[in-house]
Amino acid sequence: MKTYIIDTNALISFVTDRNLQQQAIISEIFEASAQLKALILCHQIVLTEFVYVMDKVYRIPKIRINHMIGDMIAMPGVRVVHEIDFKSLLKVWPETFSDFADAIIAYVSKGCKGRIVVTFDQKFSKALRSIGANAIHGP
Prior knowledge:
The chain is of the alpha/beta class and 139 residues long. 54% of the residues lie in helices and 16% in strands. It has 7 helices and 5 strands. Helix 3 runs antiparallel to helix 4.
């Protein structure tokens, strides 16, 4: 079973129509997860960033954001990750990953064969490849 680690921008593309090509990519992954053919790992930092962007940028009512997150974490094949080994994290931040949240996502993927980071951030994707992590990136 494939394991995907989602970046905030992938989650935002899933729930908005900002980029239909990105939405199609992430929708397939969520569909596979719902059918228990894939596992999606979502670090809590992604949820934190998601809430901020949906509230401040998209101006979605907080109760609706609450329902979005509740629906997602209730899906089969989705697991929220909370753990952080800060000693390991600080080895890649800020030198390899200048964004702290990206460093956390990279930390979750590092050393775990078969885990694939889903991001639509080309700079982040390139940095992931530099540490040997697998990444799906789209348009």
